[in-house]
Amino acid sequence: MRHRLIGLICLGLLSSIGICADKTIIRIGVMASGTLSWELAAMHNEGLLDNANFQLEPVTLANQQAGKVALQAGSVDIIISDWIWTSSMRAEGRDYSFYPYSSSAGGLIVAANSSINTLADLQGQKLGIAGGELDKNWYLLQALAFKQGINLNQSVERSFAAPPLLNQQLASQRIDALLTYWQFAARLSAQGYRQILSGEDIIQQLGFNESVPSLGYVFKQSWAAQHTSALQQFLTATQAAKLKLCDADQAWQKVLKLTETDDAHTQQQLRNHYCQGIVKQWGTAQQKAAEGIYLILHQLDDSKLTGKSSQLQPGTFWSFN
């Protein structure tokens, strides 16, 4: 059903903007369960593409890794990914750049009646971790724990799995706490689960006061330089779509089917978490904070996550200037 919906969106996008030879074609990777599909639908529904100088060609992706493979293979022009991967690719000679998409970063979740209230309480417990052993949030949580004199890697029983499976394990009490992505944290919150720390909380408690986007649009710098006008107009349209979804109930109602739930409370939690992730500021201060976060991750991961470079690569963050 989800793939069919995305297919309908694609047809709608193409029909609304026409097929004109002078329009820049933007092939964009879209995860079947991702929020980008909400925005593409809103762009079409709200007429944000009526005067566009580009033509969107959405390409359905199974997951984030598939997006990375597609970008490297030249099958898409833009994907949603993170600036850490972007920097590591630049260190290997790729000319990828990142532009902010969302600052939502998941959180640490427990049952409402859980006795776990702090990181110290996690010791000796079973912790589910979405995203695998190299998940950025897992490393940042470890960094925060180290700051409090706790070695989480040694003191918790870790369980790595896909987010839906981990949600089930938390519900069946096979794990005691869960570090997961914001969409899955939102669904758990709607069921009465309690969030101990958000991704934003972790960043702040590590000493960074700036909000740093966790995900962004990633594309080749050379491609962006050739299509700057179309890219800028696309990014403006996606930001307008975000604001429509968050500020206009009618626009939100039109994309409800894409949330994959009929529960009104869950839909509202998803909307709330999504809107909290809108990037309001992106400049020197936020990019400096990202550099500081990168250094922490590099020191922790022995180059497994960040790559061999000890610092964020120049050009990682795209600028129109």
Structural account:
By secondary structure, the protein is of the alpha/beta class. The protein folds into 2 domains: 2-103 and 214-301, Periplasmic binding protein-like II (D-Maltodextrin-Binding Protein, domain 2, 3-Layer(aba) Sandwich); 107-205, D-Maltodextrin-Binding Protein, domain 2 (3-Layer(aba) Sandwich). The protein has 14 helices and 10 strands. The protein has helices spanning 2-17, 36-45, 64-73, 83-91, 136-147, 152-155, 163-171, 182-190, 199-205, 221-226, 228-247, 249-253, 264-276, 284-301; strands spanning 24-31, 54-61, 79-81, 96-102, 107-110, 126-130, 157-161, 177-180, 194-198, 215-220. The strands form 3 sheets. A 5-stranded mixed beta sheet has the order 7-6-8-5-9. A 3-stranded antiparallel beta sheet has the order 3-10-4. Strands 1-2 form a two-stranded parallel ribbon. The radius of gyration is 20 Å and the shape is globular.
What's this model, at a glance?
The chain is α/β, with parallel strands linked by helices and 321 residues long.
CATH superfamily of the largest domain: Periplasmic binding protein-like II
Low-confidence segments: 1-12, 14-20
How is the biggest beta sheet arranged?
5 strands, mixed
Widest sheet: strand order? 7-6-8-5-9
- In N-to-C order, the SSE pattern is HEHEHEHEEEHHEHEHEHEHHHHH
DSSP summary, beta strand count:
10
Given helix and strand content, the structural type is alpha/beta
Give the averaged pLDDT, no decimals. Answer: 92
**Looking at the structure, what is the overall shape?**
globular
Helix content: 40-55%
Beta-strand share of residues: 15-25%
